[in-house]
Amino acid sequence: MIRFLRFWIDRLINWMKIPAALLMLLAVPAVWQSFERYWVIRNQLNLHNLIYFAVGLAFMLGARVVFANRNGCAETMEHELTHTVFALVTLHPVHGVSVEDEGGGSMSFSGGGNWLIALAPYCFPLLAVGMGMFGTAFAEMTGTAPDWIYIGMGCAVGYNLFALAQQIHPEQTDFKVAGYWFTICFLPGANMLMYGALFAFVERGWAGVEFFGRLVSYYGRHLVAGVL
Fold first, then answer.
1. How far is CA 51 from CA 55, 133, 194, 197, in A?
2. CA dihedral in degrees (79, 81, 84, 89; nearest 10)?
3. 116: which residues sit within 8 A by CB, 6+ positions away?
4. 178 with 118: CB under 8 angstroms?
5. pTM, full prediction
6. pLDDT, tens digit, for every residue of 40-94?
7. Distance (Å, whole) CA 113 – CA 137
């Protein structure tokens, strides 16, 4: 039964390759226009959260620049864990994860696989998403969201952005697995959507994510209507 489901999940994801590429190409101008809208209403934004987020972001980016020559197994571990998460979500048993001290690593799983497993580490900031989930759980349990959560979100986003910049290069075997042209079409829009949603979450929680989604949908529909 698991093999049957895995087969059809892979087939469905791979069938969605061209629509996903087209949607992400459309997402680039839609997200850009959404952030232009954020700039217009900047006086209405929750600047308290964003300032603490910016502090964490600046700290992490500064630290990563200073210690750039010491990057290694931490980035690789998160990279392989992201592959692992998406392999498990699509019902692929993971046989092992290997991480070397110098930064190399790999993971192995059963089944044919799909492009989502291959590209997940380049468009799904696992640490930042995990920090957001932790912040949500903490706020639900305590009824408050202290400032250190937003600093932590800034640090996590900075870490993921720096790791992303390091990992994207033409020699990546994951890009060959997914297809170079598809990767070029998919990743910019996917990252803009993901980091835009994280920004919206920091600014106003899940209500902010919903607002961001409505903006992207609105501008996306208008772009399509203009083309048609």
1. 6, 20, 20, 17
2. -110
3. 13, 86, 90
4. yes
5. 0.92
6. 999 999 999 999 999 999 999 888 777 665 556 778 888 889 999 999 999 888 8
7. 32
